[in-house]
């Protein structure tokens, strides 16, 4: 119990010292102001913000799952593969079983497709968790391998083709807007973000996850079943991937094995930019949300510059990721130096 209290106090003190959220908000204001000034006529339009609200939820929900695994001290690179595999199976079910169904039965078929998706997410997440917790395979290698497995299965099932012909009721439901202005995908992201925040901050699992990411051996000695926590973490990541898959399938009106191929890099970038420590033990949903807003603003703003080709997008995201990692390293070194100086002064005063 003393060890758990020490972990909790350590995390709390580090959380209080962390100013990453304020820095993120400042960056968001700067980025937003830049595009608002340079592309005022095109950027400051209701249509632009509506487009942003529709585009950001799918990879943002995937990023929430990646964030959970990063906090545990691991990573999940297979989220896009899980989402595409589940999307293909759900699309096949809807395109074959529900196309000729009576209107009253369509909601049942949609619920059945969603159940298939969540079963896939549960199974894939559990498989990842088993590899990481039971067989002790490094998470980056385990999920890189399963990413190829899940993507390969999707390609084998579809022979590389897209699966279309979804029931119109599903497409209409996913792409609709509450009150005429609040997109359903955005509501789904808000619900997922709220759930992840609750799990991290208000449950025993969340406290154990932070402790596990801080020091796995110490967490185990304090009585935490680390394998159980890891299994839950990768299962949660798989289930969040299915929520994103539902949005991707509805927005594209189809499912394909290579949908969202750039999302893996974006998810990692969102987590790192949002303050999730790559070595584990720290991360906040609020930081992830602001990071999502920053990246979506940059993405939308870049689209307004016709001279910037879309082929440069991966180059830009990679450069931003490296720059953020370097900046975080410098900031963390400065904070550690200040902390050590403060501790040495306190020890000198006590002496």
TrEMBL record:
Record key words, sorted: Cell inner membrane, Cell membrane, Membrane, Transmembrane, Transmembrane helix, Transport
Membrane topology: Multi-pass membrane protein
InterPro entries named among the record's database cross-references: ABC_transp_permease (IPR001851)
One family name in Pfam for this protein: BPD_transp_2
Domain of life: Bacteria
Residue ranges of the TM segments: 21-37, 49-70, 77-96, 108-132, 139-158, 178-200, 234-254, 260-276, 288-305, 311-331
Subcellular location: Cell membrane
PANTHER family listed in its UniProt record: ABC TRANSPORTER PERMEASE PROTEIN YPHD-RELATED, ABC TRANSPORTER PERMEASE PROTEIN YPHD-RELATED-RELATED
Protein name as it appears in the record: ABC transporter permease
Lineage, highest ranks first: Bacteria, Bacillati, Bacillota, Clostridia, Christensenellales
